[in-house]
User: Which sequence fits this backbone?
């Protein structure tokens, strides 16, 4: 059973600070990695995708991938109250489905 | 709006009844996925279509569940003889390429009384 592990939180971060979210995965063959944001009662919204080792930046978001350590992270700079949500890490299994972690609940405190 | 759409958004049914959900993917996406999400958990994969072919089904998908994608466009997910344990958010997603980003619809929240 392929697994994706995240700390469920809650993670509390002051407004303006950097939020750091982490994820580990078990399948060494995984090639595609995604971060989704999910507000309460809503569906997951894609915010970052990463396919190769290193960092990928998009606005205030940076995804980091280390395939040797089987580790993916998401950094959110200048955190805003609107960033308060559950963040889901997803890893591709083959080319046909995503395996999700249980999500990390993030709260940004004004 | 060219995103993934799902109908209905909410469904309340009594145990033992049949329900059917519909998903319309992003128009140029030939890959369509169904997931189920319960409170406090990440989405769990149910099934996958490439065009009209159903290529994978999760072991989570009991015989009471069936999915179709006629003509490779919209898809339906039917649950027969619903049970209280079927209460969940049913999510549909679509993608353009294998292993690529999947874009989710708003989901259908099912409550079985």
Assistant:
């Amino acid at each position: 059973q392929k697994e994706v592990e995240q700390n469920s939180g809650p993670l509390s971060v002051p407004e303006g600070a950097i939020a750091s979210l982490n994820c580990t995965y078990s399948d060494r063959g995984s090639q595609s990695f995604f971060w989704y944001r999910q507000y309460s009662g809503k569906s997951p919204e894609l915010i970052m995708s990463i396919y190769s080792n290193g960092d990928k930046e998009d606005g205030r978001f940076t995804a980091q991938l280390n395939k040797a350590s089987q580790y993916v992270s998401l950094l959110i700079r200048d955190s805003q109250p609107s960033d308060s949500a559950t963040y889901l890490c997803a890893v591709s299994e083959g080319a046909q489905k995503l395996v999700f972690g249980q999500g990390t609940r993030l709260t940004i405190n004004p | 709006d060219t995103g993934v759409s799902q109908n209905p958004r909410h469904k309340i049914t009594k145990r033992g009844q049949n329900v059917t959900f519909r998903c319309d993917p992003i128009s140029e996406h030939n890959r369509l996925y169904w997931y189920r999400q319960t409170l406090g958990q990440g989405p769990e994969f149910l099934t996958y279509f490439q065009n009209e072919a159903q290529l994978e089904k999760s072991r989570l998908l009991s015989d009471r569940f069936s999915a179709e994608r006629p003509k490779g466009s919209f898809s339906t997910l039917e649950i027969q003889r619903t049970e209280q344990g079927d209460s969940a958010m049913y999510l549909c997603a679509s993608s353009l390429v294998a292993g690529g980003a999947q874009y989710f619809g708003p989901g259908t929240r099912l409550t079985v009384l």
About this structure: The first strand of chain A starts at residue 4 and ends at 6. Chain A has a mean pLDDT of 95. Chain A is about 0% helix and 55% strand.
